[in-house]
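User: Predict the complex.
Assistant: Input components as received:
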Amino acid sequence: MNRWTTLIEPFRIHSIEPIRTTTRQQREHSLEEAGFNLFGLRARDVLIDLLTDSGTGAMSTEQWAGVQRGDESYAGSESFYRFRDAVRELFPFEHVIPTHQGRAAEKIVFGILGGTGKVFPSNTHFDTTRAHVELTGAEAVDLLAPEGRDPGELHPFKGNIDLDALEALIARRGADRVPCVVMTVTNNSSGGQPVSMENLRGARAVCERQGIPLFLDAARFAENAWFIKQREPGYGDRSVSDIVREMAALADGMTMSAKKDGLANMGGWIACDDDALAERCRALLTLTEGLPTYGGLSGRDLEAVAQGLAEAVDEDYLRHRVQSTAHLGDALHTAGIPVFRPTGGHAVYIDARALLPHIPPLEYPGQALAVALYLEGGIRGVEIGTVMFGRRPDGSEVPAAMDLVRLAIPRRTYTRSHLDYVIEVACWVGGRAAELRGMRIVSEPPVLRHFGARFEPLPTDARSLTLPAACDARRLRRSPSETSAQSSVAANPSR
Ligand SMILES: Cc1ncc(COP(=O)(O)O)c(C=O)c1O
């Protein structure tokens, strides 16, 4: 056991990528050009990019070596077999079918299993999963356990599914209309919170009783396994790989985005034991992605994923990853900014609805806060709330269950001082929460509207002059100098 307590990055930097400072005025202009949608910004205009942890991580020397080894044969590439074996080492399914990313896997699987009248229960569908389910005419139903719905409750497994609600839904709709149950690990859209092995086992038992397959949406499987090791009785002495294999053994199949815990910039896969389903997936894959031995990926991408999987279950890596994310979450919490607690594995979620109670959900408090973090400090996060989930398939708009801003941490990319800068800016913005205004959508695409919608800020009105009760402004205003010796953003927010 190491006697030193300072958390250090478990790597040294091998090559660097400069980041660019802009002025507040430049950022104002960039925001207007992008229609106040942070997805529309040019990456070069972002100082700290916390938009996503998907495909944005740094690769290791061994991964780059794998890139050199990539076998680009059109069929039967050696890189495919290395990829397949690395996947099977953790997820020993019979069939492993590469795809270019997670949503390609979802399109194929839900395209085959979905259809009008079908219903897919989940702890929470990620937005692309929901979109692919709904595209087939099926219904995606989120059954998050009650403890996951309270952003402040310190429960160890807030990503769990509500097993009673799952059973009730299947009884109500009929097992023959439920093609599979989807367990998202960790639960990205609900705070990046983990699912316990006990809950996975419970979901498995319900599925087995009803003859319904269980699928994992396993994008952050390694972080989920780390939380099980840390928090669930009986798992402290088990290796992370072993825990992952136990998770896999409870499932009948999986869709995967290797851009997260595959530690790669691109990639994904479908895996399952069902021969007939695999055959149908391969047939569709050949139409949309390519042959089943490359599935939309080049040989070098397959190599990067194969090596990435081995590194993703490394416990030094996972300890640093989870603890540095918690450092950001804990500092914001201490400063009085309402965050989803406990902190998840890959991101900190600010509860924008609690921070900005003067902005109603249909004026998008999450979007207003995300825009303010970029405007003041060049930090790009993402709204996860009413913009993302508010538009229903029938065209109506309803408030999402929560309005969050997600600050997702790319893997092995930013250091502790980058995170301290984010803390400083977020505290400065939090201290001025009452001055933020809501937004209005000017135009939006028909599906996944958050990627392409254009917004404009609403004019200030009397409501926004009331200071939110949830947030102690004096404490927040003091915190930049407490969290960093160089309080330059507080003094000069134009950075
Ligand atoms: C839980 C989850 N599932 C699926 C996806 C989709 O994966 P991709 O972005 O590779 O298409 C994501 C992406 O963020 C995700 O977080």
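Confidence is low (pLDDT under 50) at residues 462-495.
Let me know if you want any component modeled separately.
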